[in-house]
Structure formats: C-alpha cells, structure tokens
C-alpha cells in the first residue's frame, strides 16, 4: 500500500501507514525538480523525511528500492 505518493500535480501526498509492507514514492527526476521547482523539491524532502522517519520509529525498515522509484518498507519482526 503506498503511503507517500505523488498526486495529480506530482506533489507528495501522505497517507496513514498500515500493514506489514509500505511503499514510499520518490520524485521521478529529483535533480530536474530541484532546478525547475525548488519549492516542490523541498516539499518532497520534508514529506519523505517525516514519513520515512515516522515509519522507522514505528518498527519499519527499508527492505528495498524498485526501479520505478519506490522504497519498500517492511515491519521489523519482533523476536520472542
């Protein structure tokens, strides 16, 4: 389930994080975005920092990154 994804204008949209596997989008071309729209690039940086940091604080770990630009996070298994 995506929890940070672009809206119709390529702006970041945060959604509630639920489930064992979460997805976090990244801008398609971050370098180009920084050049053409620095304010939007800053919104993406802030959203990713907030969301990834929050997910990791809640027991998720980055498990991979897919070529289409998504981080894959999985809930860390708790040892018994």
Explain what this protein looks like in three dimensions.
The chain has one domain. It is an alpha+beta fold. Helix 1 packs across helix 2. The mean pLDDT is 88. It is built from 2 helices and 5 strands; from the N terminus they run E-E-E-H-H-E-E. 34% of the residues lie in helices and 32% in strands. Strands 2-1-3-5-4 form a 5-stranded mixed sheet, covered by helices on one side.
Short description:
The protein has helices at 30-36, 38-57; strands at 2-6, 12-14, 21-25, 60-66, 70-75. The chain is α+β, with helices and mostly antiparallel strands and 80 residues long.
- Kindly estimate the percentage of residues that lie in beta strands according to DSSP: 25-35%
The span between the termini is 27 Å
Our count of helices gives 2
- The chain-level structural class is alpha+beta
Round the Cα radius of gyration to an integer and report it.
13 Å
What number of structural domains do the residues give? 1
Provide the low-confidence segments as ranges.
Answer: none
Strand order of the largest sheet: 2-1-3-5-4
3D shape: elongated
User: How many extended strands?
Assistant: 5
Overall mean pLDDT stands at 88
Along the chain, the helix and strand elements come as EEEHHEE
Largest sheet: 5 strands, mixed
Helix content: 25-40%
């Amino acid at each position: 389930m995506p929890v940070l994804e672009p809206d119709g204008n390529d702006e970041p949209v945060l959604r509630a994080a639920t489930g064992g596997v979460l997805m976090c989008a990244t801008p398609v071309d971050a370098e180009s975005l920084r050049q053409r729209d620095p304010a939007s690039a800053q919104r993406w940086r802030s959203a990713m920092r907030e969301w990834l940091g929050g997910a990791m604080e809640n027991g998720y770990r980055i498990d991979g990154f897919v070529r289409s630009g998504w981080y894959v996070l999985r809930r860390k298994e708790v040892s018994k």
